[in-house]
Structures
1.
Amino acid sequence: MSAAKSFCRAGRIGFCFGVRRTVRMAQEILARTGRLTSIGEIVHNPQVMEGLVRRGLRVVSSPEEVGAEDFLVRSHGLAPQVVEEIRRRGAVISDGVCPRVKKLQTLISVLDTSGFSVIIVGDRTHPEVKACMGFGRRVEVCPPGGAVSRLPASARAAIVGQTTLSFDEYLRSVRAIVDRLSAPCVRVFNTICRVTEERQAAARELSGRVQTVLVLGGRQSANTRKLYEICKAVNPRTFHVESLSDLAAFPLSGVRSIGLTSGTSTAEEFIRAVAEHLRKNGYEEVPGYAK
């Protein structure tokens, strides 16, 4: 970087197409009706959620709290049994599920119908995985790098992955699972989101070219946490920034180059605010990674 103090953005930053679609759907419904309900946060980003709540979004935790009202299925999805219960209660349902996640849900359903036991590599507590578990009758979850608590006993098994995993992480888990399976027929599917892969690759490259990396996004966001881990492994001076107040805690003295990357649910408005903060502290934005 040629400037005395400079910063640049990774080649992939801001909302992914799935999150942008879900947020736009919520905004359009709220603009039309002024009221909307979701089970759980529709995206894992505090600034985005605060803005939607101010406009009339109501976040609840169970279908019993939903009535005859506009309802948006979150980007991570919901189990079909939950959606059916909400429909039974008279809600007008809009489907905000990320297309990549929807594809994974459909795959699990098809595999289940075809007689496969399905192993999901992912975080059992993540809303995407919790929703996907509802699309099959024989579904087990294996944490990345962990062990399957109960291996399927059927003759046919299929392995899929939470869409926000890194591909390398998924591949390591797949190899470990396949070594333990006794099923004569095992099928493995690459369900990792390509946008996530590209973003991780761009962040990894950027981390090796700057002194400090700021990973922008919510701490509840799985893909943002994964980006942080990837960047931190390359560059120890990597910091997770969820809000502007976090910036005050990061030592910038002597730092001449800063790289910005973000999770897929981080709004452009927040990225611009961080960039403006850096400019006020004497940093000049330079190009070079906006591919």
2.
Amino acid sequence: MLKSTSLKRFGSLAQTNTNEKLNNFCDKLKNNEYKRIAVLLGGSASTSAGVWHPKSLKLKEAAEKLDLPFPEVLFDINYFKFDPHPFYKVYAQMVPIDAKPTVNHYFVKLLEEKSMLLIGFTKNFDGLERKAGISENKMIYAHGNSDTFYCVICNKKHSSEECNKYVLQESPPFCSCGGPVKPNILFVGEKLNNQFYHGSEMLAYADLMIVIGCSLSVFPFSSLPALVGKKIPRVVIAESEEVYLQSGFDFEHRDMFLHGHADEVTMKIIENAGWMSFFNKNIIGKAKS
């Protein structure tokens, strides 16, 4: 359920997500006033699919069971080259192979179907955007995705069908050259792909940005909201507003904060915009067929 939230730590700011603001926003969606929407997806957009959040306690507990000094070691490329076994002991639990898209992913597909989606960015590497049917040229996988694998020594590509057999066994696949094979996801010590930087240039053309379940705590992903025009509204769907205020969001005037679980708030937007029938028939219906 949507809640009005007072910014208690920032007492000078007023309430941010009144029903009036939400209704006005949904009316604008309904009337197609936004033609070039940019969407940012974070970890909370996938948690209801069984995917672990990057800051989940489960990850910390798994690292402790494996006697690792800290969870980040699991995603360190140099450590992976040294010993890939700890990563694969956890990976299948983090990103279940049979995970299905959530309403958040289908919402982005809905925007695409209505010709309102300019570009989407995701921090997640679970591949649920692709499973939701979002076109490749409409989604930037900032941290890679789990659909492909490659050898960290010779860079040879390996299919997910081939490697997922090992993933389910919590065992690392190895290349014919002897090197360990990893999913094509970003590890500490690796650079973001050029697709991210090319895609970020498109944000200058956005007339709305929607941030779903993304804390914006990691650079350069955290820099994306600043790349839209200075008068372009940014709608944030999350359970805590503090980090966004610290990132320069203005929920009193330009921007809007919608407090609650990402799935519930996104579904409420679909309902209030009068899109539920279209959503069920053309998005969910096609996904099930």
3.
Amino acid sequence: MLISCLYDNKPCDPNNFFQQKSFYFGNCFTFNSGKNLTGHSIPVLNSKRPGMVNGLKLKLFIGAPEYQPCWEDRYGALIVVHNRTVPPLYVEEGLFIQAGSETNFILNKVTINKLPSPYSNCVANVSYRNEFDSESYRSAFDLSGSYRQKWCILNCSYFKATQDNILLCSSFNFTSSFERSKSLNNLENLANYYDVCFPECPIECDYSYFNIFKSVSSFPSYSYSQFLLANRSFRLRYPYENVRLEQVRNSVVSFNAYFDSSNYQKIDEIPESNFESLLGTLGGQLGVFLGVSFLSFAEIFEILFEILLIFMNNRKRVINNE
């Protein structure tokens, strides 16, 4: 499957990938997860600089199109970009890349820091199994040793869909677990359970995601196709002798993923007002009102003084007239 692999302009090999199984997509391989194909821990690779040269560059053989499973209605590869500390969500976050093309994913990381209670109901400590009192929360935590809301909602939706349709599906007498699972997905849309599962699956206070900008070009070129066919091990991947250039184009993909800069976007929630700003606001308001009150109090003396002057002037006039 792997034709070539480069990361940080250095060669990588199948031992840098960790294999997982997906119900929808079969074999899935995670690069730089800290585990190799056998599940043993290996050092995590780091890229020192941004740019295409220092990112991940893969060339993959995805199989001869004539020998794809008959139930598949698409052809290509699925890519999920995620933090290595959390498991991938293939259906919810995956992006397809097409055969016969080179696809570039230009990445920009965004980190969100939300305020915990009393400002929100987010989960502050995702590494603690009993941080939130919910069976769906604990089930999602048990999947990877850490909590993630999307995992929780997906797991909760599967569970509720299964419970609601288990009797109906069992009456169909399907011959395999694949057909039974397929019937569940066809009978009930999992999105119908999202509103029910949201109260059981709070959002994390600290989480991150990747903004992905995508560009595509044709691949492989005529000369590179000839280079691939000159490799005997590559030709043996096909179940027939005479391999045409068009067949090569329809069975390979090229994929590049890299950051466009060393910076990332960080969004922090802050209180609109805290105790210090509240005291400052109250002090300002009191200052204004007290200032007005003192002015009003001085005006009373001024009025009394003017009344007294008027009275004295009128008295002098009366004496002069007499």
